């Protein structure tokens, strides 16, 4: 074998090794991207669990606080029930003593009424007898008058009889007067006794009402006493159960804290692993770029050349537009973004957005025809702002934010790791592997190939070409 043949053989072997390095780096990038995606999902799950755990801790603390308030309230209710029970029992005792007095009064009044009725009957008899006396006195008076007449007829012999007749007549008048006085007195006394009888009857009725009301009140207070005793028992039960809850909460708190400490430690480790994985991704991407620059062949060669050519074409379009006065350099590089009202997710306008809407679709739509694996092609500025997207991703927004996120991706800032690096990289090309969220928990491995866009030597951004692996 000649030296030339040996050199050719070594070159072929080196090229083969570079090709394999490039391919292995792509496979490594794919696997690391899968791991990174899994770590990212795991980190999100851990964060969600941490939030749930914190909510649970907060709920447990709320329960503990509420339980403490329940115990405090139960103790106050118990003390109040004891005081109220003492008062009610004292009231019951007083009421029963009052009822005894009322019963004594009622009995005395009933006896007085009976005696008054007896007095009234006696007075009636007295009035009857007095009437008889008056009648007799009238008859005596008539007899006395007749005697005086007869004595007058008898002359001197009748003088003694006349004196007697006159005395009898005077007695009859006094008896009649006394009978009238007795009748008047008895009548007044009878009226007084009748009034006393009526008053005593009213007092008797009031006493009976007091007795009846006292009996009802006694019954009601008895039920109240029983209710208070039951309340005190229920409050004691509540206090006991609240104590059990308090004990359980005291057990939960350390357990929650241990879980939180463990999950926090795990979250930190996962986050560190994710950061290291990102470093691996960057290393793999760098290896691919260097291998391709060394002449290594990959399945991405066609896409790389196409993206670089399209980026150059866009740069020329921008430069020609500045030369012709269609846009100024200052406006093209102006990164003041004005939010579009009512958009969700938020869309923004840049001073150059209307210009890119007019010139970019021709290049970007043509790039979609290179392969059915291409998902999108769009230029972004240095901040990840994507002013003009492919037509299929530039739909007018609806009222559904989820639909908008998938179909209205123009005029949005994609400052995630992939989007920001694509806009800021000044390398001849940048090949990134990432998991794209397809919605519904589904992810697809994607390659994001970008080439820088320089306008008159000034870095404007990059052209992103995304395609399936």
Could you describe the 3D structure shown?
This protein has two domains: 67-252, Helix Hairpins, CATH 1.10.287; 299-468, Beta-Lactamase. It has helices spanning 3-154, 159-293, 301-324, 329-332, 353-359, 361-367, 401-407, 417-424, and strands at 338-339, 348-349, 374-381, 385-386, 412-413, 430-439, 442-455, 458-468. It is α+β, with helices and mostly antiparallel strands and 469 residues long. A hairpin with a 2-residue loop joins strand 7 and strand 8. The protein has a four-stranded antiparallel beta sheet, with helices on both faces. It has a two-stranded antiparallel sheet with strand order 1-2. The chain has a two-stranded antiparallel ribbon with strand order 4-5. The chain is rod-shaped, with a radius of gyration of 61 Å. The longest helix has 152 residues, at 3-154. It is built from eight helices and eight strands.
| CATH level 3 topology of the largest domain | Helix Hairpins
Q: What string gives the helices and strands in order?
A: HHHHEEHHEEHEHEEE
Instruction: Supply the CATH superfamily name of the largest domain.
Output: Methyl-accepting chemotaxis protein
The CATH architecture term of the largest domain is Orthogonal Bundle
What structural category do the secondary elements indicate? alpha+beta
Shape: rod-shaped
Strand content: 5-15%
Structurally, the number of domains stands at 2
Considering DSSP H and I runs of 4 or more, what fraction of the residues is helical?
over 70%
